[in-house]
Inverse folding.
């Protein structure tokens, strides 16, 4: 392509204003309304559990608050080459005041199926997973009051319980089943 043709094509591209970019995180549209991510506890989030192009995010809460205060850590279910992947993230404040994310690691589909297949009411289905490279643990404590904790060396980054945990596990089950159906 010659230089003149390149600039002609560049001028023809739509501007950011023409793309109708939404200010909310990870949501952009070009005449479409499908988000790039949904929070697992949002109303209507379940309709995206079967949509692999939409990330499902579970924002973890402070353990003492029992769902009232967010901890800054999150679990992001996204689609990988061989099925769902779980990214473990924490907020990272930038020098300019903006927020980014620091990745603590990921869990691939084979290990996710252990959590997805767990019966939350059965204590025998409790799971502890070591997440590399951060040496962080993701622990599912099944039983009468099930909870999922992200922790490392005595520090709890956050937890899920109640309806948020149920929705998170349901999304994992759905995504793992879709990946199994493709194989």
């Amino acid at each position: 392509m010659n230089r003149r043709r390149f600039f002609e094509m560049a001028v023809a591209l739509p501007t950011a204003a023409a793309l109708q970019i939404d200010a909310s995180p990870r949501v952009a549209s070009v005449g479409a309304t499908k988000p790039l991510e949904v929070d697992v506890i949002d109303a209507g989030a379940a309709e995206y559990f079967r949509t692999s192009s939409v990330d499902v995010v579970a924002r973890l809460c402070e353990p003492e608050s029992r769902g009232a205060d967010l901890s800054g850590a999150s679990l992001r279910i996204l689609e990988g080459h061989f099925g769902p992947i779980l990214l473990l993230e924490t907020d990272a404040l930038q020098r300019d005041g903006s927020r980014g994310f620091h990745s603590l690691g990921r869990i691939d589909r084979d290990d996710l199926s252990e959590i997805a297949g767990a019966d939350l009411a059965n204590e025998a289905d409790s799971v502890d997973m070591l997440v590399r490279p951060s040496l962080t643990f993701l622990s599912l404590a099944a039983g009468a009051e099930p909870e999922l904790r992200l922790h490392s060396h005595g520090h709890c980054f956050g937890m899920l319980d109640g309806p948020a945990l149920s929705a998170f596990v349901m999304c994992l089950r759905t995504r793992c089943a879709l990946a199994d159906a493709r194989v």
In short: The domain at 35-182 is CATH 2.30.31 (Transcriptional Co-activator pc4; Chain A). Residues 71 and 162 are 16 Å apart (CA to CA). The helical segments are 3-12, 109-116, 162-182.
